[in-house]
Write a structure and sequence with these properties.
This protein is α/β, with parallel strands linked by helices. It has a single domain, classed as 3-Layer(aba) Sandwich (Rossmann fold), CATH 3.40.50.720. It contains eight helices and 14 strands. The radius of gyration is 18 Å and the shape is globular. NADP nicotinamide-adenine-dinucleotide phosphate binds next to helix 1, helix 3 and strand 4.
């Protein structure tokens, strides 16, 4: 498959580039510097010029707290970006897979959020991502929108990705013990993005590792124990104690009620995926 991957220096993009390359796809990877997805004309030119069969949109403004004071930049990348790509994919016959977030939900539900639940974004980042969902679907009903959450992976700079390094170094750190989510290994998400592109399964999908989900604290403890580092240096905190600018959902665990219908089995359990991540890190 000839595949264009945007936001090429990001964590999920790197996993997608690695996965598609391993499957002998013809990968065209474009970084933010090479293609700003908010620039409509450039997006159209790039898709016309490279003629991909599929576009995996991994580009996004992902600074959740920063978006509170830079909403325009968040909307440009997260709302106009997917819209531009969706329209260009429609025009030039490519399949768009674009990533959205568990943060589109407000977190008041107990249990798992499915595609039947109504989004109610609570931060500027979340609003921009939800707007991206709406605009990409409106511009091109064949768009594939993949909500994921709590992503960890190689090259990632977010809490879940760096926790193993903190634990291995015996550093003291705080981890939130009262927010619940479904962790997702970027490598597994990359597999699912490509599968959905191949299936051309339009609409909204949820893609996370399976299991009951966890808290940041429990994720950190699980990683530390797997590394034989012990968990005494991990301090439990509550979400509100951190006083971060952007609101986060208390619970944003996701379940997909549509992957079965397109013949896709659930992704592996998050603990198995975390162990694979740790083993790969150890081998690098
Ligand atoms: N990480 C998570 O836990 C999580 C959870 C749920 C959903 N997601 C979604 O998953 C997707 C991938 O996230 P990630 O964790 O891989 O993020 P990431 O590591 O921050 O990568 C995002 C990439 O997009 C680039 N970018 C930003 N604005 C752009 C623009 N206007 N045009 C083109 N590229 C642009 C960034 O480049 P610069 O750094 O140069 O700006 C960066 O390389 C995003 O859609 C994100 O919203 C992530």
């Amino acid at each position: 498959m000839r595949v264009l991957i945007t936001g090429a220096n990001g964590m999920v993009a790197r996993a997608a580039i690695g996965h598609c390359t391993a499957l002998s796809d013809e990968v065209i990877a474009v970084s933010h510097g090479e293609l700003d997805v908010s620039q409509r004309e450039k997006v159209f030119k790039t898709i016309e010029g490279t003629a991909p069969e599929a576009v995996l949109n991994c580009a996004a403004f992902t600074d959740v707290d920063g978006a509170e004071t830079n909403e325009d930049a968040a909307y440009a990348a997260n709302a106009a970006g997917p819209e531009n790509l969706a329209a260009a994919c429609k025009e030039f016959g490519a399949t768009l897979v674009t990533i959205s977030t568990d943060y589109v939900f407000d977190g008041t539900k107990d249990g798992f959020y499915t595609q039947d639940d109504q989004p109610n974004p609570q931060s500027a980042y979340a609003r921009s991502k939800y707007e991206g969902e709406l605009r990409s679907a409106a511009a091109n009903p064949q768009s594939i929108i993949v909500r994921s959450g709590w992503i960890f992976g190689h090259g990632g700079t977010n809490f879940l990705s760096v926790v193993p390094d903190l634990a291995a170094k015996g550093k003291r750190f705080k981890a939130i013990a009262d927010s619940f989510g479904t962790p997702t290994f970027a490598d597994d998400l990359a597999v699912r993005l490509r599968q959905l592109a191949v299936a051309r399964a339009a609409g909204i999908f949820h893609a996370t590792n399976s299991g009951d989900g966890t808290t940041y604290y429990q994720f950190a403890v699980t990683a530390a124990e797997a590394l034989g580092a012990g968990s005494r240096m991990i301090e439990r905190v509550s979400n509100t104690e951190l006083k971060r600018p952007a609101a986060r959902p208390r619970n944003s665990r996701l379940k997909c009620i549509r992957s079965n219908e397109v013949g896709l089995a659930p992704l592996r359990d998050w603990i198995e995926a975390l162990n694979a991540f740790l083993n790969e890190k150890g081998g690098k």
